[in-house]
Amino acid sequence: MNARRLIPTAALAGAVALGATALTACSGASASGSTDGKLDVTASFYPMQFLAEQIGKDHVKVDTLTKPGVEPHDLEITPKQTAQLGEADVILYLKSLQPAVDKAVAQSGGKNVVDAAALTKLEAHAAAGHEGEGEAGHDHGHEGDVGADPHIWLDPAKYAEVAKGVGAALEKADPDHAADYKKNTDELVGKLTGLDTEFKDGLKNTSTRTFITTHSAFGYLAERYGLDQEGIAGVDPEAEPSPARVKEIQEIAKKENVSTVFFETLASDKTAKTLATDTGLTTDVLDPLEGITGKSQGADYFEVMRSNLKNLQKALGAK
After folding, report:
1. Per-residue pLDDT tens for 133-164?
2. What's the whole-model pTM score?
3. Nearest to 239 by CA among 110, 120, 142
4. Which of 202, 216, 220, 260 has the highest count of CB atoms within 10 angstroms of its CB?
5. How far apart (Å, rounded) are the C-alpha atoms in residues 20 and 204?
6. Into which CATH architecture does domain 198-316 fall?
């Protein structure tokens, strides 16, 4: 197994040491696998694709394994995609989120592998009411599972840490354009810092600190901004809640003055609407940003995150 994983260091700028082998300089048409001289980057799903595009810009060609509209956790990798990974100049993925991707990366023999999970600290977030309930076939460290929560991109501050590591990786992979990667990384981190401030200020004063969601993906966001996430039925956004959980959610909604049940764009809203009807609540979208489609409330990461903020402010009674 020749895949290399990043090893976090005290300084994020140096967080791209890949095992015992340094990144091979692969700039220009002669060193890059791309025929147009661009650095070929294969990203596992949208949040990784967005980082590569924002930091690499004109110097990179970015392909993603998870196409728009596909639920990332359910992704199956084809032999062609595994071969694509082996030919990529840089592989950017988030270990533990997509088991099929983890396996394909390990089999690919990719020389420059960037694991975003190694660029920031992952934590476990137990979702109240269903600790220990796993999702059959999905061992990706969701709340309620035994591993760490992989949804780091929903915390702008953690996403900024990952951006720094990705930027440093691209600098080493393509040193001829290192200055541009550094500039683009700094700009992106600045925007993420601004987004973090928007969330802090926008959620500072609310009528309630509790929100209910069908997809327990918002542990980092909740922790960052002092909120309490209540997942409906475990880690599967389309799972039917048990009668006991419905009763518990009703009690939580009444006690915590909750008005809204959130659902996501890549999954059915049936569970949210059923629970809302049973509890007298309304529904709205809280997007885990695992992919962008025509149904998304925004065209990119920043637009959708600001839509999430607006929806949270409305649901929580922001003042």
Report:
1. 333 333 333 333 447 899 999 999 999 999 99
2. 0.83
3. 142
4. 216
5. 45
6. 3-Layer(aba) Sandwich (3.40)
